[in-house]
Amino acid sequence: MKIVVSQIGAREHYAVPRALHQHGMLAALVTDWYGFGYESRNGESRKQKLFQRFSVSAFQHFAGRSRAALAAHADGLPDDLVHAFPVRSLFWKWRVRRLTAQGRSHEAYLHTDAAFAAAVARLNLPPHDAFFGYSYASLEMLVAEKKRGILTILDQIDPGAAEFELVAEEMARFPQLAGPPPMFPAAYYDRNRREWELADRIVVNSEWSRKALMKQGVPSHKLVVVPLAFEQNAENLKAETLKSETLKHRNTTTPKHRNTEAPLRVLFLAQVNVRKGIHYLMEAARMLEPERIRFDIVGRIGILPAAVASAPKNMTFHGPVSPREAPEWYCKADLFVLPTLSDGFAITQLEAMAHGLPVIATPCCGQIVSDGVDGFVVPPRDAGALAGTIRRYFTEPDLLSAQWEAALAKSRQFTLETLGENLRKLVEQKREEGREERRNATIETADDV
Predict the structure, then answer these.
(1) What pTM value is reported for the model?
(2) Secondary-structure percent of the chain, ordered helix, strand, coil, rounded to 5
(3) Is residue 299 domain-shared with residue 403, that is, in the same domain?
């Protein structure tokens, strides 16, 4: 059983191709940009070509990315299993950057996704039994693979048009946050619907996404929930020790002495926009201004400057950080909040738990939090419930230490091994269904004779 994986960017740190490679199931990874020069299957190092060295500087200019980001590669994955389009990526990134600056981001991604998928479809790929691609950037490859009789699997990264409409409705309610909602990008989501029709199986990462796609007409038998994976690394393990020492100190405090201690630090690390529910967190923070609670808002800001300026004084906006800088913010925090209105999964929940942070989340994302065990689940659009739950960690300091252990344990459940096994079962189940359909067809033909 061999599978070709196609993805733009280092999505989920190449979790799917790495998980499949660990199970001996990866035929090839096709991506737009890749940091070649690492180990190949025979253990030798591939020399970087001159055009790639030139492309790094150009790609950095057009995409606005650091050299560390441009070195993205899949640890443990041989170079000779990877196909990339470094030169064409320059043009794709330039087009996205230009059209996005004109307020035409969906148009930009529509053209770029189609160009990428068409380029993948033209490749002379190694023999394989299945194709795994991501939504919006797989249509042309799905068409080609269906003609070849290859099993097609689409990973739907979000709840589709339903999420756009939900956010647009919220923006219309609160135009002071990010301005009026954009026009519905019909062509962009029509492309997505054609992908749904061609895919034999559609992977979603949460029950929230599964229900959203069913409401949009996707047959339930096509949908399979496969949670994302999170991998422990040296930085996370170091963070566990640091958090342990911090909490030992906190355990010596009591509510009546809390005012003499450092304030409770609440972390929001995500895109700062309407979809993530930042306005409800701002309202909750305002309710908690009399308390010794501080809010650190980390991530690219997608609301208007006036909205940022209206935030309460106990909330600080720090702007975007690189993946390497994120662990520092997790270590500084006591608690992680995700008041999202819609997310395909939100892997930041697992990242926070891996750093010993209890998580307050809504049910509108991956179901990671066990309510009252490693955090709390609060209703979306309910600033009062959010503020009340945050206050519990301030008035009940034992919650931090009690849920810290459970959070760490939860983060270790979502492994690459589990992801690979889930994907293997998915493919095997579909193949068995195909064999059963062929057997039934043979029996019906014999009966007709």
Answers:
(1) 0.86
(2) 50, 15, 35
(3) yes
